[in-house]
Design a protein that fits this description.
Order of helices and strands of chain B: EEEEEEEEEEEE
Helix content of chain A: under 10%
Structural class of chain A: mainly beta
Largest sheet of chain A: 6 strands, mixed
Distance between the termini of chain A: 33 Å
Number of strands of chain B: 12
Strand content of chain A: over 45%
Number of helices of chain A: 0
Oligomer: heterodimer
Helix content of chain B: under 10%
Order of helices and strands of chain A: EEEEEEEEEE
Radius of gyration of chain A: 13 Å
Distance between the termini of chain B: 41 Å
Largest sheet of chain B: 6 strands, mixed
Strand content of chain B: over 45%
Chain lengths: 112, 112
Amino acid sequence: GAGVSQSPSNKVTEKGKDVELRCDPISGHTALYWYRQSLGQGLEFLIYFQGNSAPDKSGLPSDRFSAERTGGSVSTLTIQRTQQEDSAVYLCASSLTPYGYTFGSGTRLTVV
Amino acid sequence: AQSVTQLDSQVPVFEEAPVELRCNYSSSVSVYLFWYVQYPNQGLQLLLKYLSGSTLVKGINGFEAEFNKSQTSFHLRKPSVHISDTAEYFCAVSSNDYKLSFGAGTTVTVRA
């Protein structure tokens, strides 16, 4: 597609439920990143996929968070047993060249 | 590890006046530097980036920034702002791991 697509754009969930956030990167982009933007913490790196290499998961805040990337394209970020502190905007980015990130519009997650 | 400090959280400015947004970073290794803009309910859009070469970097929408290694700064400037420049601006730094570390952001409000 023309840009990085994220769905849903907004998600309200009850505390304790699991959620899945989806990212469709730009076609052909080999690198994919997830970031989280929250009021208290600003913008934080979560996870990075590059081609077929093992992902860099060093930014995931707890074992309730996981992500996968199928076929080197679409990525899903899963949050299990959501907590109120998980409320944030989750941003996905993809790139073909180093540092050539294109960001999606994000998914706004609200945990009530 | 690297970190970024944006010295001003809010910058009010009149239309057609110049603006400077200050950014300082700390890192023990060579860095790459970025400025992003975020309009309401949108993702991050790259304004400009410094990877190497000339320390004066020109970006989109009339913005420019200067990399100053001795002062570990990467301040963003625009000589004449428009109402449409009202947005949040983020400075970011990366080393060789492709992960971005962001500053807390500067909200620019342009008034007529």
